[in-house]
Design goal:
Largest sheet: 3 strands, antiparallel
Number of strands: 3
Shape: globular
Structural class: alpha+beta
Helix content: 25-40%
Number of helices: 2
Number of domains: 1
Radius of gyration: 13 Å
Order of helices and strands: HEEEH
Strand order of the largest sheet: 1-2-3
Distance between the termini: 35 Å
Oligomer: single chain
Length: 89
């Protein structure tokens, strides 16, 4: 279908978690998907999203959307830039 991305692999998710953890060591990435943050807000089906949460359970970022093709090449600089942009800075 034209409105769907491919699904992510386990290795891509492991890589994404590691990069996000390294970019924000004091925060935890909470991953969601198409319907978790309001299905109508997702650009396409099988889009991955995350938010950063602190140790007290408070979210410290807005939703950051990632396409499955971006996960394997995700870098610390890209993650920091996306979070900064999602927070309006």
């Amino acid at each position: 279908m034209a409105n769907q991305n491919r699904k992510t692999t386990r290795a891509e998710m492991v890589h994404a978690r590691a990069v996000i953890q390294e970019a924000f060591p004091d925060l935890q990435a909470v991953f969601g998907a198409h319907g978790d943050y309001g299905g109508h807000r997702a650009p396409r089906d099988h889009t991955i999203a995350f938010r950063l949460r602190d140790s007290e359970g408070h979210f410290r970022s807005n939703v950051v959307w990632l396409m499955p093709d971006e996960l394997s090449s995700l870098t610390i600089a890209v993650v920091r830039s996306r979070v900064k942009r999602s927070n309006g800075k």
